[in-house]
Design goal:
Length: 407
């Protein structure tokens, strides 16, 4: 029976990048061409490349901390992939499903009794998100209700105003007292109709990128029932995209603890240290005092340079700075730089060389990594980088010390 190796012995390699646009197009095309309501299964690489502590389920439950919290995932989708609507819809669906099953009477899910008292007898319409029926004048009260629903949906993701300690605790997306008053303006059917106008109808403000057949089927279903099952296929599809594309890319970027400039710097330091080790070996062997006159064990002087160089190289190969890994520190991630860039937009931008220098590890603020799962992963990368450096250094030392150039 094969004994399973400890997890720290499995060489960690960051998830490969998946282009969101191409991935969504391929997934939608596969569904449209006869694969049913679900895309075909893909490689299970995500299961091996992403530790359980950083899984999508834990991120959605806000059981992870900075820089991989639910808020960070939302900011990543908003500023990097430009698809925050996927997370907003999925968080709303989970919340609606929980509210529905909590309040649905014993008659079963097909019983279309409103959970929340309707504000009026108006019938919703699947149109663009204007709140105005064709031929009707705008209803300020109705528009206000729709805007409140938009705020409610966006509020299901912890906002920037939420304290840091709250972002690192389990999150349950249930409405507050204020949100309860907002939802009291809608029956279930009205809420579903407004959600369809917000996420499903072509040209809507937060339109989801869905296969046409799936979209039409869902729009037809919600006209018959207010059950969450009417939108379950869309929720599954959005979850599939989040898990197999967005979350992978988010983890890939979140594990990288340094900027591009810092990684360039440490890679150069690693190369120079490795070259210095080789130069030391050659000088000891051939120049002090000459060939066949130097003691073999003096060649061990190159080992420290090779160890440092390869440690930096193996860590940088996986997108991390070795020095920052040692102290569980990181630099700001791209979505965290958005606010500072926006605030400094009016100021005069420094030249390219100054901007490059500011992003180097030596000059930029270092932030402590708060998520325990990420810290454990970074320790694993450190240990593996050092072990790999020891192995490569030992091989090089054996090769050079066995050459017939020593006394």
């Amino acid at each position: 029976m094969v004994r399973i190796l400890p997890s720290w012995l499995h060489w960690y390699q960051k998830p490969s990048y998946r282009d969101p646009k191409t991935f969504i197009q391929n997934t939608n095309s596969a569904i449209e061409h006869g694969h049913g309501s679900r895309a075909p299964s893909i490689s299970s690489e995500s299961d091996a490349a992403i530790p359980h502590d950083l899984s999508l389920e834990r991120v959605l439950g806000n059981n992870t901390c900075d820089p991989l919290s639910l808020y960070d995932f939302y900011m990543y989708l908003k500023h990097i992939e430009l698809s925050p609507e996927n997370l907003e819809f999925y968080m709303w669906f989970r919340d609606y499903e929980a509210r529905y099953h909590e309040n649905t009477p014993a008659a079963g899910p097909d019983h279309a009794t409103p959970l929340l008292r309707p504000a009026s007898e108006k019938t919703g319409i699947y149109a663009t998100y204007t709140g105005v029926l064709p031929g009707e004048e705008a209803d300020p009260e109705r528009n206000s209700q729709e805007l409140e629903l938009v705020r409610y949906v966006e509020g299901l993701v912890p906002s920037q105003e939420v304290g840091m300690w709250k972002r690192c605790r389990p999150f349950w997306s249930r409405p507050s007292e204020t949100s309860e008053r907002t939802l009291a303006n809608f029956s279930n059917m009205e809420e579903l109709q407004q959600i369809s106008s917000l996420f499903l109808v072509p040209g809507s403000p937060k339109e989801l990128n869905l296969p046409a057949s799936m979209r039409n089927r869902a729009l037809a279903e919600i006209q018959k029932s207010d059950s969450p099952q009417a939108l379950a296929s869309i929720a599954d599809h959005v979850y599939y995209l989040l898990k197999n594309c967005s979350h992978r890319n988010f983890i890939r970027l979140g594990v990288k603890n340094g900027t591009f400039e810092t990684l360039c710097m440490v890679t150069i330091v690693g190369i120079l240290s490795t070259a210095l080790g080789l130069l030391t070996m050659l000088l000891v062997a051939f120049a002090s005092p000459s060939i066949h006159h130097s003691v073999r064990w003096r060649g061990l002087a190159a080992a420290p340079f090779w160890f440092i160089g390869f440690s930096f190289f193996f860590a940088g190969w996986r997108g991390s700075c070795f020095l920052l890994l040692l102290f569980s520190r990181r630099q700001e991630l791209p979505w965290e730089r958005v606010d500072s860039l926006e605030k400094g937009a009016a100021a005069k931008r420094p030249n390219a060389l100054v901007r490059f220098a500011r992003k180097l590890m030596l000059f930029e603020r270092k932030i402590r990594v708060k998520d325990e799962g990420l810290r454990m992963l970074q320790r694993k990368i450190v240990i593996q980088s050092m072990v790999g450096a020891v192995v490569v250094t030992a091989i090089l030392e054996v090769v050079f010390l066995c050459l017939p150039i020593w006394k």
